[in-house]
Amino acid sequence: MHRAPGLSRLTIALIAATIVLVVTGLALFGSRLNWSAADKSAPTASTLPTTSAPSASTPTPNVADVSFAVIGDFGSGDQHEADVARLVASWDPAFIVGLGDVYYSEAGGSGSERYDRAVGRYYCRWLKDVSTTGSACPQGGASKNAFFTTIGNHDISDAEPSPESYLDYFDLPGNGFTNTSGNERYYDFVEGPVHFFVLNSNDDEPDGITADSRQATWLRSQVAASTSRWNVVVDHHPPYSSDNSHGPTVVLQWPFARWGVDVVMSGHAHTYERIQRDGITYFVNGLGGAHLYSFGAQPVDGSKVRFADNWGAQRVRATQDSITFDFIDVSGALIDSYVVR
User: Fold this and answer.
1) Which GO terms of the molecular function aspect are on file (predicted)?
2) Per-residue pLDDT band at 198 (split at 50, 70, 90)
3) Is 201 helix (H, G, I), strand (E, B) or coil?
4) Where does residue 235 rank: exposed (0-12), middle (13-18), buried (19+ CB within 10 A)?
């Protein structure tokens, strides 16, 4: 073996051992590289321990890329919702993620007609077995559900005391296809390289909404068992928000990062906000059609981007290497672009 002058066998052995330790450390700890086009910050890396054994968290190889849309607080049945729906349709997303409040009383109607008025006539091409058969959706919906939403407070309070009509209208996981929770109130599904965990954040959820609840225990165990590249939590009430109408939902400030979640997406506040906490990204996205909110004088810690001047939605593209989140308003303006690696 040739070695550089002045290097003893002991020195070489120490260098080799150091390299092994570094490589081993990288294998045991996952890293995230986050970059924001909106705030033009330099890339920063944060290293997070995995929450499961390496064999359980190994991403499934050769998974197809996927593009989808995210909308929140949109069931008003007015022109603003129509404008957002037109924007979303122009992207031709593979599926849509709804962040709750899919129905407001101003949309009118009763029973399943409520959801036809507030959702079906705008998004029926992604909905399975909807009753809407207007000119925008002459076939009456999709052959397979491609609309995954969470229960918002208005979906209960403005419709009826329980979410039964909501659960009957939407063909969600737990109603005919795989879901590990055993119910439709909260559920999970996988699309491309993303494992979605959709929570019920309303305080009347029978399985609770605290970090030690049955619902949270389900989330923690399923994230730990996930083999997908990305773990994304969806709920209605934002754990963190700078809006001046609701603000943060403290009871939902679960240790998502420690459990292995990459992104948390919420609605409820009729704003758009991107927040960095504990090394992961939180989005608030409630500009799907309902009246606009404003922000308080003091943003929450970690708030990076805040916008509440127009309605809009998120266009998202996920690959094995990254997820790109673009928030675009109804004028076509790119408000925020953010990449998680």
Assistant:
1) acid phosphatase activity
2) very high
3) coil
4) buried
pLDDT tens by residue, 110-121: 666 777 878 888
Cα–Cα distance measured from residue 337 to residue 34, given in angstroms and rounded to the nearest whole number = 11
No. of H helices and E strands in the chain? 9, 15
The answer to whether residues 33 and 321 touch, using CB atoms and an 8 Å cutoff, is: no
**Both structure tokens of 125:** 């091409």
Alpha helices (runs of H) in the chain, residue ranges in sequence order: 9-28, 54-57, 79-91, 112-115, 121-123, 154-157, 164-169, 214-225, 256-259
Give me the architecture of the 51-340 domain, per CATH: 4-Layer Sandwich (3.60)
Q: How far apart are the first and last CA of the chain?
A: 40
Going from N- to C-terminal start, the domains of the chain cover: 51-340
Whole-number Å distance between alpha carbons of 173 and 60: 21
| Residues 142, 135, 148, 253, Cα dihedral to 10° | 170
Q: Could you tell me which residues come within 8 angstroms of residue 298 by beta carbon, excluding any fewer than 6 positions away?
A: 242
The residues that bridge with 189 in the sheet, in sequence order, are 196
Q: Which residues pair with 327 in a beta bridge?
A: 314, 336
